[in-house]
């Protein structure tokens, strides 16, 4: 059974930083992607960072490029996914989800999702 559990959300002021973590268990690494998505109230869920597990390649949309960094850690037979977020803006406020098993930044195709962690950025 695949499980993804996020942590690390919280409230920060604009310009601040947060680091999100996602503990991934039971995931058969098929060389696909791990990713972070976010969803603000009334908006579609959007991809903000993706890492291809086979190559380590990462991609970001322009809205977060240069501010967000995705990484993974496979040490000690456990898989963790991270999202380092710097220079946060009020428009980054959303529920953040980690996801596994899809491709790229489109939410279609991702089979596995965490429960989400809230990030709130105040001006």
Describe the protein's architecture and organization.
It is built from no helices and 11 strands. The chain starts with a strand and ends with a strand. The model has no long low-confidence stretch (mean pLDDT 93).
Structural class: mainly beta
- The number of distinct β-strands equals 11
- Rg calculated over all Cα atoms: 13 Å
Specify the number of helices. Answer: 0
Low-confidence stretches: none
Query: Could you give the distance between the termini?
Result: 40 Å
- The helical percent reads under 10%
What's a concise summary of this model?
The chain is mainly beta and 123 residues long. 0% of the residues lie in helices and 51% in strands.
Present the secondary structure layout.
Blueprint: E1 3-7, E2 10-13, E3 18-25, E4 33-39, E5 46-52, E6 58-59, E7 68-73, E8 79-85, E9 94-102, E10 112-113, E11 117-122
Parallel strand pairs: 2-11
Antiparallel strand pairs: 1-3, 3-8, 4-5, 4-9, 5-6, 7-8, 9-10, 9-11
Notable features of this structure?
single chain, 123 residues, mainly beta, seven-stranded mixed beta sheet
């Amino acid at each position: 059974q695949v499980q993804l559990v996020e942590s690390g959300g919280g409230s920060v002021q604009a310009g601040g930083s947060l680091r999100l973590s996602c503990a991934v268990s039971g995931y058969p690494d098929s060389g696909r992607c791990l990713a972070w998505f976010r969803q603000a109230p009334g908006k579609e869920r959007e991809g903000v960072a993706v890492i291809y597990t086979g190559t380590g390649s990462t991609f970001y949309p322009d809205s977060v490029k240069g501010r967000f960094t995705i990484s993974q850690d496979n040490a000690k037979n456990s898989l963790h996914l991270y999202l380092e977020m710097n220079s946060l803006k009020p428009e980054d406020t959303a529920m953040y989800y980690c996801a596994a098993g899809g491709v790229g930044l489109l939410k279609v195709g991702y089979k596995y999702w965490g429960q989400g962690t809230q990030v709130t950025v105040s001006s």
